[in-house]
Design goal:
210 residues; Metallo-beta-lactamase, Chain A; six-stranded mixed β-sheet; five-stranded mixed β-sheet
């Protein structure tokens, strides 16, 4: 079965996800925002083999540890969409402005496009480009288990902020409407911060979507 272990990292309590197939023990690390030693300890405890680092978008709290994770596990960085290159190129400068250390610029080995497909063990994920919170934001959708790795597009009771460089409120609402709300109510999602939810719960109760 497809499993997800969430490891909150950094002072932003960003949800880094270790996504793995419990039969093959193949895994990916999604959005390592920092504290890679904490992520590595969780990987060791789970007894899984990390095959790649996936990024939903280029903000420092999601990608600041990507290069360290790449080195730690000896894998490639995959994603996000190329429109986030500017964010990834400036992680060090932006984090220094916040007084943060240990976060590094990231250079993906593979950019992603709408409709691309990635896999973890036997489980395939569809890539959907969802700009608005960040220009190159993508989400990863597994249809067989009805699971979404959401990043900061949609939250339980909220949506991603759009006041950062490259943010666009209407574009985010359009992304949610056309790329997320077209899925069935029983799709569950893990978001970039705080608790998980379902498409149906947000469709009926999220104040930003009413």
């Amino acid at each position: 079965m497809l499993q997800i272990a969430v490891v909150p990292v950094t002072e932003y309590q960003q949800n880094c996800s270790i996504v793995y197939d419990d039969q093959t023990k193949n895994a990916v690390v999604v959005d390592p925002g920092g504290e890679v030693e904490k992520i590595a300890a969780a990987v060791e405890e789970l007894g899984v083999k990390v095959e790649a680092v996936w990024l939903t978008h280029g903000h420092l709290d999601h990608a600041g540890g990507a290069e360290a994770a790449k080195a730690q596990f000896g894998v490639q960085i995959i994603g996000p969409h190329q429109d986030d290159k500017m964010l990834l190129d400036n992680i060090e400068m932006i984090s220094a402005g916040y007084g943060l250390s240990g976060m590094f610029n990231a250079s993906p080995d593979q950019w992603l496009e709408e409709g691309d497909s990635l896999s973890v063990g036997e489980y395939e994920f569809e890539v959907r480009h969802c700009p608005g919170h960040a220009p190159g934001h993508v989400v990863f959708v597994n249809h067989s288990r009805k699971i979404i790795l959401m990043g900061d597009v949609l939250f339980k009771g909220s949506i991603g902020r759009t006041d950062l460089p490259g943010g666009d409120h209407q574009q985010l609402l359009d992304s949610i409407a056309h790329k997320i709300m077209t899925l069935d109510d029983d799709y569950q999602f893990v978001c970039g911060h705080s608790a998980p939810s379902t498409v149906g719960a947000e469709r009926s109760t999220n104040p930003y979507l009413q």
